[in-house]
Hints:
By secondary structure, the protein is an all-alpha fold.
Amino acid sequence: QExxxxxxxxTDKFEVFRKSGIEMAQTYVAGGPAEGNRLMGSFDQVADxxxxxxxxxxxxxxxxxxxxxxxxxxxxAQMKTEAERSALVGNIxxxxxxxxxxxxxxxxxxxxxxxxxxxxxxxxxxxxxDYSNDVPHAQRKDxxxxxxxxxxxxxxxxxxxxDARTQSDRExxx
Length: 174
């Protein structure tokens, strides 16, 4: 508002200056230097008034510029703070996602991968003819427990065959 008023006042002063200059020039042309010089004092006053108005408008422009710079600096500081806050939130979310991913990996490893590895290792022991160990994870109530139960049936069948073979060998030996 202040700048707008200063520019409007400068425009008015310039219009007075322009009209005064035209009037003095026309008087010089029509009446000669003596008539034109008579208006010189009033023209000089109008020029001084315009110069003062230019200085005042310049001050208003500088003040407006200073306000704009201050507002920009404030907005920049707010944007920087918001960017830092956003980066922090992003880092926290990333850390939480990483922790969740690691937790899920540990969970899957303990609940799925390790039992499957245990079952694979146990089946290798059974294939080697060692039936002395119980089937791991046979007590579970999920698919891994069902696989373990199948392994237990295989173990029992193999032990029954071994016992039958041993019994048969004993009977033949007698």
